[in-house]
Design goal:
The protein has about 525 residues and is of the alpha+beta class. The chain has 18 helices and twelve strands. A hairpin with a 2-residue loop joins β8 and β9. α15 runs antiparallel to α16.
Length: about 525
């Protein structure tokens, strides 16, 4: 069957080239759609739950929030492990699913479990899901720096939280923009217990009064002179003075209504911090961490973030600048360039070998044309399977490149050897016989190399996620090379290896190498025991 396929490819070489062109176009199109990243995603499929229960000790959070949530998540379909951590006022629950689970399906199952457990949690406990990102979603980081010293950490934090963060979150592919460092501005109402006792007021009176005052209300419409007017009460608190003027209505007769400023001291103070950010030893700063959505193209997302930051930098106050502190795009581009350099080196080596030993430049074009087509065929399968182009998957192709060109080199050399000193057309039985003679062994040998990485597919967990992309791409590239070796390569040889073929003995380099190697062979035959 292989012999018939080779003969058919030679006789219908125009059709083979058309099919190869179609494969090239498909591979080029899919290559542009491949997701680029630095490394494979080694993280588990997990959903993070954050529960906030302000003002409560870790033991209370554990008993009232963490334990009910963790036990409910154990029943989620596909959940393999549930890890829970309790802190002062906060709890984190990590629900880890089986490998291969769709992350958005997992988030849906967690939401269903949360709806069932919500009634068993305290009323003031707030439950939110973490971003739909993986463990390697951290793709970009920047810092806000004020070299003039006119803006303090609270102002820089406000710029990050209320300006940059919202703008960057709206970018396609960005799951979250986390703020790092700085001072978060807040208003503190420092109560005077003696005044509270004198006015017969409790903590809940003051808290509810401030909460009710910090909002707007709407009334009905009022018609005047055939025009409708909407009634609206504007009550947003805008500063310390507004908070001090909030009335505390605790008496039925409303006599001498006290205000917040009468029983408390209202000040502006930073919120309690759990960490800080520092840049290059120059002191504290404010930073932002851009986290990518699961399965997105890392390089394209980083490019969109960089373009948006360049636009937003023009709107920052004078003296404030954005300093890049981490960018994964550099590692991604270096990983991609590794394959490009390997291809160029392979092309140069093949051309030099063909010219030096065969004295036939057109023969080298067979490899130069067929090798990229085999790689593009691997890209087609990669895109269909959803494998990202990273340092491991591209490494699999780089490993396969050396073996991919073997079949073409052996076929070209055999054609030259069988037809040396002759002028034979491509449709001649002698020409086809020279290709068929080595076609079957080459095809079978490439298939053996193709299946050599099958044991890697048995790896599990992080080892499997790390090495499986390499095994897949290497297998795809070798399978493509095996198919091309009995179809496209014979067709290209029929087009490019024409005219009178020179004898190998006519090449001075070949004569010199044979003369140098013949004594070694003779000595080995005379003294076999020394070998």
């Amino acid at each position: 069957m292989i012999e018939q396929l080779i003969a058919w490819s030679v006789r219908n070489r125009a059709l083979v080239l058309v099919l190869a062109t179609m494969l090239t176009l498909a591979g080029t199109w899919q290559m542009g759609r491949l997701s680029l990243d630095a490394v494979p995603d080694l993280s588990d499929v997990q959903v993070i739950i954050r529960a906030t229960h302000h003002g409560h000790a870790p033991q209370v959070v554990e008993d009232q929030v963490t334990y009910p949530l963790a036990t409910a998540m154990l029943a989620a379909p596909g959940a393999r492990t549930v890890r829970a951590y309790s802190f002062t006022g906060d709890a984190y629950i990590y629900v880890i699913f089986e490998d291969g689970t769709d992350p958005y399906w997992a988030r849906t199952r967690v939401l269903e479990a949360l709806n069932e457990i919500r009634e068993r949690l305290p009323a003031d406990a707030k439950i939110v899901l973490g971003p739909d990102a993986s463990g390697v979603g951290w793709i970009y980081q920047y810092a806000l720096v004020d070299r003039t010293g006119r803006h303090d950490l609270a102002e820089l934090r406000a710029l990050q939280d209320w300006f940059l963060r919202y703008e960057l979150t709206s970018i396609a592919g960005v799951a979250e923009v986390a703020t790092l460092g700085g001072m978060e501005k807040q208003y503190e109402v420092r109560l005077d217990p003696m005044r509270m006792e004198r006015e017969d007021l409790g903590y809940h009176h003051i808290r509810h009064a401030i909460a009710d005052a910090a909002q707007e209300v709407s009334g009905s419409m009022l018609e005047i002179a055939e025009a409708e007017y909407l009634l609206r009460g504007k009550g947003y608190l805008r500063g310390i003075d507004d908070i001090k003027r909030v009335p505390l209505l605790s008496r039925w007769d409303f006599s001498a209504v006290p205000r917040v400023g009468d029983i408390a001291n209202v000040v502006e103070a930073p919120r309690a911090r759990r960490g800080m950010a520092e840049l290059d030893g120059d002191g504290e700063t404010v930073g932002g961490i851009v986290v990518m959505r699961h399965g997105e193209n890392a390089l394209a997302t980083i490019e969109r973030v960089e373009a948006r930051l360049a636009e937003l930098a023009r709107g920052l106050p004078e003296g404030v600048e954005i300093v890049e502190t981490y960018n994964r795009a550099q590692l991604i581009t270096r990983a991609v360039s590794t394959l490009s350099h390997r291809l160029i080196e392979e092309f140069i080596a093949v051309v030099l070998v063909c010219v030096a030993f065969l004295l036939h430049v057109r023969s080298s074009l067979v490899i130069v044309i067929s090798l990229p087509i085999g790689i593009l065929a691997a890209f087609v399968v990669m895109a269909m399977q959803g494998i990202t182009a990273n340092i491991m998957s591209l490494g699999g192709i780089a490993i396969a490149i050396g073996a991919m060109v073997d079949a073409a080199i052996v076929m070209i050399e055999n054609v030259h050897k069988r037809l040396e000193g002759q002028t034979v057309s491509a449709d001649s039985p002698v020409f086809i016989e020279a290709l068929v003679e080595v076609g079957r062994p080459l095809f079978i040998s490439l298939l053996i190399i193709t299946v050599s990485f099958i044991p890697i597919f048995t790896l599990e967990a992080q080892e499997g996620r790390l090495f499986t992309p390499l095994a897949y791409t290497k297998t795809y590239a070798m399978a493509a090379a095996a198919g091309i070796s009995v179809t496209l390569v014979p067709a290209l040889i029929a087009y490019l290896v024409r005219g009178r073929i020179r004898r190998g003995a006519d090449n001075p380099l070949n004569r010199w190498l044979m003369a140098a190697y013949r004594p070694v062979i003779n000595a080995s035959l005379r003294h076999p025991g020394l070998v």
